[in-house]
Amino acid sequence: MDDQNKKPRTISNMQKRALILAVRAGELMMKNGAEVYRVEDTITRICRACHIPYVEVFATTTGVFVTIGSGGEGGDVYTYIKSLDGRTTDLKKISDLNKFSREFTDTDLSVESGIKRLSEIDNAKPYPLPIRLLGAGLVASFFCGIFSGHIIDSLCSFIIGVAGYSLASFLDRYDINYFIRGFTCCGLTTFLALLADSSGACSNYGAIVIGTIMIFVPGVAITNSIRDFLSGDMLAGVARMAEALIIAVSLATGAGIIIAAWNMIGGVAL
After folding, report:
1. Residues of the chain with confidence (pLDDT) below 70
2. 160/181 Cα distance (integer angstroms)
3. How many CB atoms lie within 10 A of CB 128?
4. How far apart are CA 205 and CA 14, in angstroms?
């Protein structure tokens, strides 16, 4: 009897599939802008729902490391490492993934059905481009108004914001680095703002430039870095904050270079 009790327990194939499901869910959450603690909690909950005795999760902005064990002395240990490439911000997908996590842990949803559901969430199309362009234009115009822009300035900011976001959407198709994308888009919007000011179409190009830049400011990354700090994930917090600061520098550099070049050529008046 004692020998039977000491017999090592093994990890079943179903539990291994559950691990793949959990890591996939965490991967999608991280790639779409979720906080590290939320990713780790989701992976842990999915594994616990599949009756895995031992779960240890370590997530960063560039990778997810998960170890599961069958429990007991001499039990099986199984580790899954997933590298993460490319990140964006899609709060709708994060909401869908949170809903899936609650559904999986509270119902009898199978692992295979869960994997299929994750595939559907990942392949879900974003909001139509016209709606995103409208949102970008409204963001630019509202922030222009906040920074002392007049109605005509807000209108110009709306149009320029739409143009800048259109360029960003075009660059996204070719997987352009988001530092270069932000630099290029802010350079374009700044040039258009200066052109509008030179032609007399607006009276405060500074407010227009600020309004259009706000479209690309990494606000979610900054917020998530602070939340990671508060939850004790110092490594993830530092990584996200550094990333957000570098993006902010690229935005400011793109606008600054265009303004400096415009002043060097004397600000051609139309």
Report:
1. 1-9, 72, 267-270
2. 16
3. 9
4. 60
pLDDT value, residue 267: 63
Distances (CA, A) of 259 to 31, 154, 200, 211, 255: 34, 20, 17, 16, 6
Strand 63-69 relative to strand 77-83, pairing: antiparallel
Rounded Cα–Cα distance for residues 24 and 26 (Å): 5
What is the per-residue DSSP string for 34-101? --HHHHHHHHHHHHHHTT-SEEEEEE-SSEEEEEEE--STT--EEEEEEE-------HHHHHHHHHHH
Pairwise CA distance, residues 78 & 182, whole Å = 41
Residue 14 near residue 47 (C-beta atoms within 8 A): no
Length of the chain: 270
133: Cα separation from own chain's centroid: 19
Q: At what angle do helices 205-213 and 151-172 cross, to 10 degrees?
A: 40
Q: DSSP 3-state assignment of 147?
A: coil
- Check: pTM over 0.85? Answer yes or no: no
Q: Could you give the C-alpha distances from 210 to 24, 40, 41, 269, in angstroms and in order?
A: 38, 36, 37, 22
C-alpha distances in angstroms, 12 versus 19, 26, 44, 46, 68? Answer: 11, 21, 17, 16, 11
The pLDDT of residue 127 is 86
**CA–CA separation, 266 and 44 (whole Å):** 60
Q: How far, in Å, CA of 18 to CA of 21, rounded?
A: 5
Which pLDDT does position 7 carry in this prediction?
47
Contacts for 126 with CB less than 8 Å, ≥ 6 apart: 90, 92, 132
Report how far Cα 68 is from the mean position of its chain's Cα atoms: 27
